[in-house]
Amino acid sequence: MSLELDTLCINTIRMLSADGVEEARSGHPGMPMGAATMAYLLWTRFMRYNPEDPAWADRDRFVLSAGHGSMLLYSLLHLTGYDLTLDDLKQFRQWESRTPGHPEYGQTPGVETTTGPLGQGFANAVGMAMAERYLAAHFNRPGFDIVDHYTYAIVSDGDLMEGVSHEAASLAGHLGLGKLVFLYDDNHISIEGSTDITFTEDRAARFRAYGWHVQEVSDGNDLDALEEALRAARSETARPSLIAVRTHIGFGSPGKQDTPGAHGEPLGAEELARTKAHLGWPAGPAFHVPEEALQRFREAGRQAASAQEAWESLFAEYSSAHPGLADEWRLWMSAGLPGGWDEALPVFEADKKGPASRAASGTVLNALAGKLKNLFGGSADLAPSNKTLIKGEEDFKGPAFTGRNIRFGVREHGMGGILNGMALHGGIRPYGGTFLIFSDYMRPSIRLASLMRLRVIYVFTHDSIGLGEDGPTHQPIEQLAALRAIPGLTVIRPADANETREAWRAAVRMTEGPVALALTRQGLPTLDRAALGPAEMLSRGAYTLWQSPEGKPEIILIGTGSELHIVIDAAAKLSDEGHRVRVVSMPSWELFERQPAAYRKEVLPEDVTRRIAVEAGSPMGWHRYVGADGVVVGIERFGASAPYQILYEQFGLTVAAVLEKARELLSK
Fold first, then answer.
1. What is the residue range of 595's domain?
2. Has 22 been annotated as catalytic?
3. Catalytic one among 412, 499, 554, 590?
4. Which of 64, 182, 376, 494 could make an SS bond with 499 (beta carbons 3.0 to 4.6 A apart)?
5. With a threshold of 0.90, does the pTM exceed it?
6. Rounded Cα gap, residues 626 and 408, in angstroms
């Protein structure tokens, strides 16, 4: 290609981006203008993708971690032939447009992940690369590399500042993810000014210390140097690659290049006109796309798409040579479940000294793992406590990448972003474990998983003051309420081993959105279900566990998790006193709210207003179920260090305390 045509194509990206931001009167024109050259090179000479089939399984993944520069991605998608029109670009940041302010997964064809919160896309890309390596190890056979693609990302100064990227980068280097290539848009500018005011470490040395292959390109407009660096990165098979590219934010703008003014606001009509004149661009109309540039981009899109034709031919041969694996591949990539996947799930016998729900979870997980070979995850250095290890499996690490046990290390935030990336990649059903208190470290990633409706499973153990002596720093109080506040996240807090089994069954069956399991450290009685509601009713979120036989209840006692057992004992005593009592197990608000109104009213009749909910956590939100006249027995202060039996006594989570509240209600 001639340098003249290359320059025309690069300036097309710059001016489409600047025009889009100007039309919206908000946005970030500077990053797309500065990063246009490396993005153009990547999309026209290196990446494999198909605009006609954006979800092709063996495509290269591209993550714009610097999501504020979204017009860069939208311009590339339009120019290379994705179903994103020029009119869509003109609707940048407008209501119900396909070009929102930051890239949003599921809203725009070709967008691989929702980015914007800096560092998240970085971690997502690491997760995608991990999924690619595990799938390749599982499915590839000699002569049949049906999983063989790269994960690329453009990352910014802000991405490298955020802690989540440090965690993810450290793990990626340790694992040796050789098919992960990041272009670092090193433009030296953040919102407050030059990055020198806060960000002065040697970033290249930092990534070398992580075990990455690092190159530096001093001129972000030097196509030859960039191409050489990308080829070297692709040939590095044992280490992830970072190419630090010295770019200029707002490149081509006489008044705003290399200033914070190019970062978070339009260039302005006058400065945009000056920029177009400076770059030799027509003054009008806006959103001008030269025909020669469009042809170049569309041809690049067609050439990239030809890789899918070759792959489909290879897969047809693979299907003949390895029909069982081919069927398994189709099942995994369609997010399907194999026949009999839950037949081996254990049934736990009644036991007054039953296992902790974390221990039951480990048993169930291993039963599932035997059938679900794409169940893939681990823990943030807490596997012995979280019970998240799959027995008989190796650790996931290079160069083989065959193991299913991921050692995330003490990196909860990075783990959350990586799990999202694995789910986004497809073919994988990821899970990750830590203590419930540390869900606070993961909250940004959990929120994004919910926003993108990803099928991620979180195994949160040590779910209350019941963890005991570790004290208030480790005892969750507000965490259940905080997780329940996230739209789209399903929180399940099972009360015994059999409810734990059903919690996992519900999580695996979930077709949309993440699931958080809240599990105990302390042992829980395994309920004798002979005279109780079956544990399978957990799938409905709440159910009548027991009711005194005399007729319509006078009072309803609601419990979750370890506190359900307190409720059961209190109900038995009230029944002995002649009261009509119903016990409701409510392991999941979210599952309950998805039930028909008639079922919800059946479990919680509107005319039974005496209600008590008992949970070892913040009462926040419980009044929707107990009503204005009801009572919540919970905790509204931080915990303390002591054996858990003493803590329950001191915090009023006892049968006696519940009886006192119940008698007060019944006396009214």
1. 536-667
2. no
3. 412
4. 494
5. yes
6. 40
